[in-house]
Amino acid sequence: MSIKVGFISLGCPKNQVDAELMLKKLTDAGYEIVDVAYEADVVIINTCGFIEDAKQESIDNILEMAELKKEDSIQKIIVTGCLAQRYNQELVREMPEVDGILGIGANGDIVKAVEAVMNGEKYESFPDKENMPLEGERLLTTPQYWAYLRIADGCSNCCAYCAIPIIRGAFRSRKTEDIINEAKKLAAEGTKELVVIAQDTTRYGLDLYGKLMLPELLRELNKIEGIQWIRLLYCYPDRITDELLEAMAQCEKVLHYIDIPLQHCDEKILKAMNRTGNRETLTELIDRMREKMPDIILRTTFITGFPGEDEEAFTSLSEFIDDVQFDRLGCFPYSAEEGTPAAEFPEQIDDEVKKHRADVIMEQQYDIFQFKQKQYIGTVQKCIVEGYDGYTDSYFGRTWMDAPEIDSNIYFTGKGDYSEGDIVDVEIFDINEYDLMGEIV
Predict the structure, then answer these.
(1) What pLDDT, in 10s, does the model give residues 6-49?
(2) Residue 336 falls within a domain, yes or no?
């Protein structure tokens, strides 16, 4: 009888790709993957350790599995991912119920780890984080019609608030030919939408080829038969070049959608964050993007309550958001992460103030978003079918303007039989809170 493995993956899409690489190794080794933790013999928790909330979620999941182990519902627990990388010795010391702990550099040894713990051994492995495998076959945890395509890992930007370089190491690009081969394989298996990710996608190629290669990569991906949508996430503003914008505008499969986490607009705050630019330069960049692609959808994130953010800086951020009118926006209160320079800065902001400012921005963005959504009433948009809802007797999915797992949905009716992954034209006739309503034409 095969050993059953439960797998819980937390955090960002890059972590999800790590999970998919490990899952494929496990299934190739003959292990059975189960969806429900209490049906498993061993549960692997692929943790996030990015900010305080994510760390707490990881710890809660470990403790929940420890309870199942105590009740003999499961036998063994293995912890992988960013929390295991960042706090390995603390986990070894404070969580004796965990049987195996792997730093990210040991992801390739997941089969060995499962074998060891199932044989009654403790397994701990913390090799160099840059040993983390970026290549290999994956067992997709997304529906087959869309997949993440990771083009690099690690980060060399060293923003003052961010622990990613500490956890995942310096930026490392994958070879273009390896990425193209993976994308072709995904297309052959039915993937229609590629969501291109890295900690900083716009830096792609600089370390390997000595120049920014994202425009060239997009042109190559655009040629792949079967792929219909290519979506860009995590683009750093400094490296959004005219060449990149031209590639986006010219490649018909590359969606006019870009995720560009700006974090702030106040020059003093950006400088303290170890980022460049100011309100004027960021406005110029956005104007340039909209000039090249008038229909571009801009997604961004901001941080409120960074050390030293006074009322003037916060007001400037709020005014900037009103001026620019972003299509999609997330805002998060600053989280002081140990080991980062910003955690030691003077002028730390009270937690309540940070949260209140984030709430103000999100309320402001809600009004902007509602206004934007109403502009689509009466238009026809390309949508991807994600399923059928018997309760409302309608299909649901996403427009080309919405990224999976992040943005809004659309609910629509249609005469005909449509399958998951079909791309259809939908006329928008209404909005419902965040979601659009429509009918297939």
Answers:
(1) 999 999 999 999 999 999 999 999 999 999 888 999 999 999 98
(2) yes
